[in-house]
Design brief:
Blueprint: H1 7-23, H2 31-34, E1 40-44, E2 52-56, E3 65-71, E4 76-83, H3 88-91, E5 103-108, E6 125-132, E7 140-144, E8 162-165, E9 181-186, E10 193-194, E11 201-203, H4 215-218, E12 224-229, E13 233-245, H5 249-261, E14 268-273, E15 285-288, E16 297-303, E17 307-314, E18 316-317, E19 322-323, E20 325-331, E21 352-359, E22 366-370, E23 384-387, E24 394-395, E25 405-406, E26 416-421, H6 451-455, E27 459-465, E28 469-481, H7 487-494, H8 511-514, H9 520-537, H10 554-567, H11 570-574
Antiparallel strand pairs: 1-13, 2-5, 3-4, 4-13, 5-12, 6-9, 6-13, 7-8, 7-12, 10-11, 14-28, 15-20, 16-17, 17-28, 18-19, 20-27, 21-26, 21-28, 22-23, 22-27, 24-25
Helix pairs in contact: 9-10
Length: 589
């Protein structure tokens, strides 16, 4: 007879079982799916490939609420909330004779998202493994791509991509709310001609072949969007995976081979190489804030075959009472520098810069800028600027005379890399701190680097700015990356932006009309202040899901940042019009 099991052992066993249950992530994509060479993975929420963010009608005065969260243990992305009717002012312009109905959407693959999406040119459509608490909800839509529909004019000029109904009713036969099913959305169900106010199709792919997704669009599915729109009610969608299905593996292999071997375009292009034995390609010099009465100082030393060492101190400018700046620059770098023409390659087919370097201090005010374009709202500053964050930096040692230690060591030589997509640069930045004022975005591309600038960037500068302290930056290499994709240039083309940066789209809202007598810059700042105040003091959304949880994930941080950007477009969105459908009613999203 076996000896009795003590209560202590039972408790230990239960604890170990509990720990195992909560510490082992859910399995990734099913083995059967992984072995199916006609499927191409787009997203797997057990180990997400992309960052997702949300937008909704509260930006436009609506009261719909929702969220998108990723549960890695269950291996699902959860899209949930409640869609409500819009107040009369927002719903009155829909044109259907009924009150407007709000929306919520989750999306990934924005202009600034560096993640890679698969080529689905040989595939038949998109397949979602999902379940829902309400199989009868009819307002789900699936969208992808950045092409602008021909009907996207006037108030709907920002509408973009292909859309299709995500129909769940036919998949619900005999299925419980706790069971996952595969829902296929063929590419032939998507259309370019849809009502931007309601989400419903105006003309289908079957009606007109010009409405069907092109091979170019299917080769890069970004941005990918899931909507709840046009129908009031509660929605709760759980998605495990997203695949492109019905793909031809032989044709895919041939395309990949052609893409790799058929292009003479390099994947990377050197912009500056400080590690060359003969020294860097261009001459570099420093320029500091003493030109404006500051006390900052810096120097740059080139150790041939190793790196450039940029050192100095960013001090508070006595007259302005804020930290100034130091820079190391090459080329024609602005009104204060004589400079001389530098040799720069054409990088207009690339996606961004990569810097290889390290910092010998914990300084947090590093920036990179390039080009000489001047945004209308700038006084003296020129070019496109982005913050440089993520290079290895020294960690203070507790031992005297000990050798320096490096955080985030990425190589045996203690240098690391940071990638700066072109879309992370903006020509509208604070001339006192260097911080971006308005981001380059798909909705407002006027501050994005132009193709004309990328063909000849003229000047490059590395800054210590807006933060008082010691600057010590070692830079080995600056290169352009992603130069076979042409994705950034394609995105600007799809957005209707000419090579010189002028947009083919006009926006009818003028901030000066909202704040009479104020300058445009002051009006922008005032509206941003209103947005921040609204976000900080807004009531917690209760609904059936309880209070909105505290911000704790990268996705929700991105959502918070996006809220401020979206609020700047509130008044423009309020003026949207459009045709309504017999069943759907909504507003622009």
């Amino acid at each position: 007879m076996s000896p009795p099991i003590s209560s202590t052992r039972l408790r230990r066993c239960a604890l170990l079982a509990l720990l195992a249950a909560v510490s082992i992530p859910a399995a990734t994509a099913d083995d059967a799916e992984a072995d199916d060479d006609t499927l191409v993975l787009v997203e797997d929420f057990s180990d997400p490939l992309h960052v997702w963010r949300t937008f909704g009608d509260p930006h436009m005065g609506g009261t719909s609420d929702g969220s998108f969260t990723v549960d890695r243990y269950e291996g699902v992305g959860r899209f949930f909330g409640t869609i409500k009717e819009l107040p009369p002012r927002q719903g009155s312009s829909i044109g259907s004779g009924s009150p407007g109905i709000g929306f919520f959407r989750a999306e990934t693959g924005s202009l600034t998202d560096p993640s890679v999406f698969p080529d689905a040119r040989t595939c038949e459509g998109l397949r979602l493994k999902l379940r829902t608490e309400n199989w009868g909800y009819q307002g789900f839509l699936l969208g992808f791509g950045s092409m602008r529909p021909k009907s996207a004019t006037g108030s709907f000029s920002r509408a973009r991509g292909y859309r299709a109904d995500l129909i769940l009713a036919s998949a619900a036969n005999g299925v419980g709310t706790d069971e996952y099913v595969d829902v296929d959305v063929p590419f032939t169900a998507f259309t370019m001609e849809w009502n931007a106010g309601t989400g419903g199709a105006i003309s289908t792919c079957a009606d007109n072949v010009d409405n069907c997704p092109t091979d170019e669009a299917k080769s890069d599915l970004r941005p990918l969007m899931i909507y709840a729109k046009g129908y009031t009610g509660t929605f709760d969608l759980r998605v495990k995976t997203i695949y492109a299905y019905g793909c031809d593996p032989v044709a895919m292999a041939a395309m990949q081979e052609a893409d790799m071997g058929g292009s003479d375009e390099p994947e990377e292009i050197i912009v500056e190489d400080f590690s060359r034995p003969g020294g860097p390609i261009n001459e570099w010099a420093v320029m500091n804030d003493p030109v404006m009465g500051g006390k900052s100082h810096s120097s740059v030393e080139i150790e041939r075959g190793v790196a450039a060492k940029f050192t100095g101190y960013t001090a508070v400018v006595p007259k302005l009472k804020v930290p100034g700046f130091v820079t190391m620059a090459t080329g024609k770098s602005g009104r204060f520098a004589k400079g001389k023409p530098a040799a720069f390659p054409d990088i207009s087919n690339c996606e961004g810069f990569e810097i290889e370097g390290r910092s010998d201090t914990q300084y947090t005010g590093y920036y990179m800028s390039f080009g000489t374009d001047k945004a209308p709202k700038m006084h003296h500053g020129r070019g496109y600027k982005a913050r440089v964050d993520g290079l290895p930096s020294s960690v203070a040692s507790t031992e005297e005379n000990s050798t320096p230690k490096w955080a985030g060591r990425l190589s045996d030589k203690e240098f690391g890399t940071v990638t700066l997509p072109f879309a992370s640069f903006s020509s509208y930045w604070d001339e006192g701190s260097g911080k971006t004022m308005i981001e380059c975005s798909e909705d407002d591309p006027q501050y994005c680097p132009t193709l004309a600038t990328l063909r000849n960037i003229e000047t490059v500068s590395l800054w210590g700015e807006g933060v008082e302290g010691d600057v010590s930056l070692d830079v080995r290499l600056i290169k352009a990356v992603g130069c076979r994709s042409g994705r950034y240039a394609k995105m600007l083309h799809d957005l209707g932006v000419a090579d010189d940066g002028h947009s083919g789209h006009t926006y009818g809202f003028n901030l000066a009309t909202l704040f009479p007598g104020a300058s445009l810059a002051a009006a922008c700042l005032a509206l941003v202040a209103v947005a921040r105040n609204w976000w900080n003091k807004r009531p917690k959304a209760a609904g059936p899901y309880g209070e909105v949880p505290p911000i704790s994930t990268e996705t929700e941080v991105n959502v918070l940042r996006a809220e401020v950007v979206e609020m700047r477009k509130v008044m423009n969105a309020m003026g949207n019009g459009g045709g309504g459908g017999a069943e759907r009613s909504g507003t622009f999203a």
